Amino acid sequence: MRVIVADDAVLFREGMARILAEEGFDVMAQARNSAELVGLVCRYAPDVVITDLRMPPGFADEGIEAAAEIRSFAPQVGLMLLSQYVEVHHALRLMEEFDGAVGYLLKDRVSDLGAFAVDVRRVAGGEVVMDAEFVSRLVGRRREHDPLAELTDREREVLSLMAQGLTNAALSEELVLSPKTIEGYVRSVFTKLGLEQSERGHRRVQAVLRFLRWQ
């Protein structure tokens, strides 16, 4: 799997490249800033890009802006964004504006090489991967008028894990429940949230977005 790494910190960037190589990835190139990253994607056509969220010159949201530009001309490229801190508004933007094949992880997650490699491959395969810390922070927040109040504790747990990017198969393994039971919970979540199936709608993404906004 072909990868491009982008980060302004040379030590982190080089370390990331070495880790990925050890996990079987083909690191095509490295970028120091968002403009360089976009140019390298045009040149090498990677399977996935791993980029810091904050990069020169402004150290704001250059990584996301570069990801949006890449998605506009290379929609097949997976986009994994890394951040030093959990920033809810950035994570929500990724969920809302990017149609799959995107991830948002804390840099600390890189220390678990096996899990990180799995997450990168999931993003390259079209899945959405969100850091568990991001989800847990939202779960800890409450609002007086909760549109998710009709969900049972188990349904809320299923939706919380869906927000981390788990598929039905992964939910079945995580919760030690049969695939049929998981399908029932997922359908119930969709029904209670009023999400009807349509050709254009992605109920799973819509359910997760509603969960993230109102937790």
Description:
It comes from Streptomyces cupreus. Strands 2-1-3-4-5-6 form a 6-stranded parallel sheet, with helices on both faces. The radius of gyration is 18 Å and the shape is elongated. The mean pLDDT is 86. It has 10 helices and 6 strands. The chain has 215 residues and is of the alpha/beta class. The chain folds into 2 domains: 2-136, Response regulator (Rossmann fold, 3-Layer(aba) Sandwich); 142-214, Winged helix-like DNA-binding domain superfamily/Winged helix DNA-binding domain (Arc Repressor Mutant, subunit A, Orthogonal Bundle), CATH 1.10.10.10. The N and C termini lie far apart (36 Å).
Question: Can you describe this structure in just a few lines?
Answer:
The chain is an alpha/beta fold and 215 residues long. It has ten helices and six strands; from the N terminus they run E-H-E-H-E-H-E-H-E-H-E-H-H-H-H-H. It has a six-stranded parallel sheet with strand order 2-1-3-4-5-6, with helices on both faces.
